[in-house]
Design a protein that fits this description.
The structure holds two protein chains of two kinds. Helix content of chain A is about 0%, strand content about 55%. Chain A contains no helices and eleven strands. Chain B starts with a strand and ends with a strand. The chains are: A mainly beta, B mainly beta.
């Protein structure tokens, strides 16, 4: 399967702490996207990192990409209760977007 | 408002009764896709369409059909639903998959008894 693997599957932290989730693929990574999903709703795009980029920032989000290791990480700094959601990485190619299995993040007040 | 709409949002049906889940986008996107989401398996692509009259299989196409007669619509058809097709379904669209975000619909929760 070309599906991505995410680690950890679940993460529980306190407000104000940082949350880090990782994503890896067995196939090569093209452009890597991260999405967020609130309890069974549609996914919302967070950030895209291109294959020639190593790090990208957007607000409290920091994404890294290591194409040699076929992996990416998403860091959410100073987390808030509203960050509670599932986070998915997605490897984008010309015709398909292959998702990871997701990390469930719980941020407690 | 730019959006992807799906109908119905919830559906309970019985084995073998044909059903269609509609998907429509108002962003003039060329690329549209259907996914199913199951616990522990994440999102898996069912079918996708690069443009009108151009469709192709994703990772889990068995038991599903699609059509793309108009740019804005991409219905998902289950000719003879079975219980293993009980799932949460998402439609998505984008102007270009490689460098652009996908916009997702709100989801259709299907239960096949």
């Amino acid at each position: 399967s070309q599906q991505g693997e995410e680690d950890p599957q679940a993460l529980s932290i306190q407000e104000g702490e940082n949350a880090t989730m990782n994503c890896s693929y067995k196939t090569s990574i093209n452009n890597l996207q991260w999405y967020r999903q609130n309890s069974g709703r549609g996914l919302v795009h967070l950030i895209l990192i291109r294959s020639n980029e190593r790090e990208k920032h957007s607000g409290r989000l920091r994404v890294t990409l290591d194409t040699s290791k076929k992996s990416s990480s998403l860091l959410i700094t100073a987390s808030r209760a509203a960050d509670t959601a599932s986070y998915f990485c997605a490897n984008s190619g010309y015709s398909t977007l292959t998702f990871g299995k997701g990390t469930m993040l719980l941020v407690s007040p | 408002e730019a959006q992807v709409t799906q109908n119905p949002r919830y559906l309970i049906t019985v084995t073998g009764k044909k059903l269609t889940v509609t998907c429509s986008q108002n962003m003039n996107h060329e690329y549209m896709s259907w996914y199913r989401q199951d616990p522990g398996l994440g999102l898996r692509q069912i079918y996708y369409s690069m443009n009108v009259e151009v469709t192709d299989k994703g990772d889990v196409p068995e038991g599903y059909k699609v059509s793309r007669k108009e740019k804005r619509n991409f219905p998902l058809i289950l000719e003879s639903p079975s219980p293993n097709q009980t799932s949460l379904y998402f439609c998505a669209s984008t102007s270009g998959l490689d460098y652009n975000e996908q916009f997702f619909g709100p989801g259709t929760r299907l239960t096949v008894l």
